[in-house]
Amino acid sequence: MTVSFVIPLYNRPDEISELLTSFLSVRRPESGLDYEIVIVEDGSSIPAGLVVSSFRDRLPILYLTQQNTGPSGARNHGASDARGEWLIFLDSDTILPEGYFDALIPVLNDPETGLFGGPDRGHADFSPLQKGISYSMTSLLTTGGIRGQKDGGGSADVFYPRTFNMGIRKTLFDRLGGFDVRMRYGEDLDLSMRATESGAKSRLVPAAWLYHKRRTDFGAFFRQVRHSGEARWALERKHPGTMKPVHWLPFLFSAGLALSVVIPPLLGLYVLYAVLILLDATLSYRYSFEEALNAVAASFVQHLGYGTGFVKGALRGHRNTPD
Question: CB neighbours (10 Å) of residue 292?
Fold first, then answer.
């Protein structure tokens, strides 16, 4: 077995149905790719057992269930039962494009690579809000896009994969002890950092991209990026020196926006920034006007959410537990 795709699942039967359907559409490379799909139902109150069963005659699926532990525990559970030489972690809200397997072959055959990751994109069928959120997390005009490029926010020679699209050798994963179940947020970056600190080579594989829905409303998206901002301080404590200037930008953005109440000229800079996003989303991403407006809103939410969490992590210490 070459690859085990490990997917934690919590109350998302519709999403896993879309992801498994996309597996059926992925082109199998001529060299072949032996794989299994390990799905870990993490104490869901809306289980996906029936949905998963409908794919069993078409896909090599191992369906595991457990009491709720959170994504780290679910991924560790799936990895412990996986048979692949490589573990590839996917989020349930992702969709694989047709050429995804082809993009994996070179990196899977590279003996020097210990872990890798690929980028994400918005699908043409995503809602305007989902496209807006996708823009905020992928565009170089936002810190979400900057942190997701090349180095994941680290130094220029290090790339830290994230679990929406992360591959790691099983021997390396086991040696590191898997994900730190004490961490509710930032656990994927922590694993990537521990892997590179151990001497493993990490690679960004641009061709191994996938579609990623992320969150489906601004409230959930705000909470997600707030937790990411808060987790940055936990990561800095565990891995000193990994915090970079880019991680301060959302805080500066949020502080400047607050100051614009008493210093009105500052507001002009935010209007200009909004116009730049609107133009970029329209011209570079080919978004409609409604989709571009959502990109503006999502970019502001991304900055404010991350900036808020960043301050909370700095002033109060990172609790690393869900609200």
Answer: 23
Report pLDDT for 198: 97
Burial class of 145 by CB neighbour count within 10 A (0 to 12, 13 to 18, 19+): middle
Residue with tokens 């996906």: 48
> Residue 147 in contact with residue 232, Cβ under 8 Å?
no
> pLDDT category, 152, cuts 50, 70, 90?
very low
Which 3 state secondary structure label does DSSP give 144? Answer: helix
Q: Quick one: pLDDT band at residue 32, thresholds 50, 70, 90? A: confident
Q: How far is CA 119 from CA 111, 122, 247, in A?
A: 22, 11, 19
3-state helix, strand, coil in the chain (%, to 5): 50, 15, 35
Which pLDDT tens digit goes with each residue over 84-120? 999 999 999 999 999 999 999 999 999 999 999 999 9
Alpha-carbon distances of 307 from 5, 21, 227, 257, 271, rounded to whole Å? 33, 37, 10, 11, 19
Nearest to 278 by CA among 266, 267, 294: 294
The per-residue DSSP string of 162-210 comes to: -TTEEEEEHHHHHHHTSS-TT-SSSHHHHHHHHHHHTT-EEEE-TTS-E
Q: What is the DSSP string of 1-57?
A: --EEEEEEESS-HHHHHHHHHHHHHSPPPTT---EEEEEEEES-SS--HHHHHTTTT
List Cα–Cα distances, 106 to 34, 50, 82, 154, 210, in angstroms.
15, 35, 22, 24, 17
Radius of gyration of the chain (CA): 20
**Run of H or E including 103:** helix 100-108
The closest alpha carbon to 233, from 318, 151, 108, belongs to: 318
Other CB atoms within 10 Å distance of the CB of residue 203: 19
Q: Which helix (H) or strand (E) holds 106?
A: helix 100-108
DSSP labels, 201-252 = EEEE-TTS-EEE---SSHHHHHHHHHHHHHHHHHHHHHSTT---GGGGHHHH
Q: What is the mean pLDDT of residues 189-209?
A: 96
